[in-house]
Amino acid sequence: MKDSILVINCGSSSLKFAILANAGQETLVEGIADRLGTDESSITFKFEGKKNEIQLDVGSHKNAVDQIKSWLNSHPTIEHSLAGIGHRVVHGGETFSKSVLINQDVVTGIKKYSQFAPLHNPAHVKGIEVAFELFPGLPQVAVFDTAFHQTLAPEQYLYPIPMHFYREHHFRKYGFHGTSYRYISQRLAQIANGSDQQGVLVAHLGNGASTCAINKGKSSDTSMGITPLEGLMMGTRSGSLDPSLLSFISQAENISFESTLDILNKQSGLLGVSEISNDCRTLEEAMESGDLRAKLALDMFAARTAKHLASVATTLESIDHLVFTGGIGENSSYLRQAICNHLKALNIRIDSDINDNAPRGETLNISAKDSNTNVWVIPTNEELMIALDTISLIQH
Q: Crossing angle of helices 61-73/121-134, nearest 10°?
């Protein structure tokens, strides 16, 4: 029975993968190829509760997919169950408003939007081309991070700059994390009857972080823009700031515009403010041992997240639900509390005891009894969405 899907998520220097069976409900194997492009690259397979790490002779995306193919060769039952391959693609621009079966036109479209996602889209193309080479005959599907936000109204997605920039170059807000937001919207509808007809705020908080307003099941605003740099303060990204700051930094340091952007993308956020780490867990440990820089970084992150939740909420008729998801959203009780403390004016309150004792990996309502809004912790599952989209498109 061919019912399993290989899900591939290519980053600039990594490749995450999983094989899901039973309509995406069962993970047969998963893993990650890390530090691609260096001499220290390796790939890890997690199968039947055991982890196996293999050093890669050549740290390329092709070699990583080669290793997945070799692993499948030695597990023929799983190999023969493969029905297709689903790829996460960060930027689909205005061309792709839903997941699609991949052909040459789709690959050309993904390449076209590489200018907006130079770290991600070229890596996705590599992953797709290698997968076609190594798995000839298997249908492949592209699932776009930007697709869910194609329902935004023009007053939300246009930038207040001369309109010819949009007409000629498609410069506009696109938003990201769409696959996660779509999963959260569907999962919430399963546990909170009628939420698909209500107003929902979601904070997807990880090393990359964004907020989204979902009105009756559709994205109505989101914090990330033409690239993932806009919006919240993140692990290493600054998020939104006065654009003139780029000019000031460039002149002060006597560096190019590209180098300045590099600082905002890779050396800012939690890392830049704390001067310790971009990892929330490390910063919370440092804060608990009295490090004031770590506390400042976390408190700035919370304040900006709350600000962007309130901002996207202006597109909703009511705020019926607030959902925390992503690595930080699911696991940091400190930041959930700090963010909700900033939302008291909206009468959003959580029960501190339930929040502090929330078990990892579980779906939970953490609202206080007097909160106007239901507050949830819901683990996201982008791989499941990719697998389900792939199955759906293959079967048609």
A: 40
Nearest to 172 by CA among 118, 230, 97: 230
Calpha distance 215→220 (Å, rounded)? 6
| Residue 80 counted as an annotated binding residue | no
> How far is 91 from 235, CA to CA, in rounded Å?
20
DSSP label at 358?
A: P
For the stretch 254-301, pLDDT in tens is 999 999 999 999 999 999 999 999 999 999 999 999 999 999 999 999
DSSP, collapsed to helix, strand or coil, labels residue 97 as coil
Residue 389 bears catalytic tag: no
CB of 182 closer than 8 Å to CB of 148: yes
Asked if residue 182 belongs to a known ligand binding site, the reply is no
Maximal C-alpha separation, the chain? 63
Are 192 and 321 in contact by the 8 Å Cβ rule? The answer is: yes
Q: Is 16 annotated as a binding residue?
A: yes
141 beta partners: 86, 101
d(CA 204, CA 100): 24
State the Cα–Cα distance between residues 172 and 227, nearest whole angstrom.
9
Whether pTM > 0.90 for this model: the answer is yes
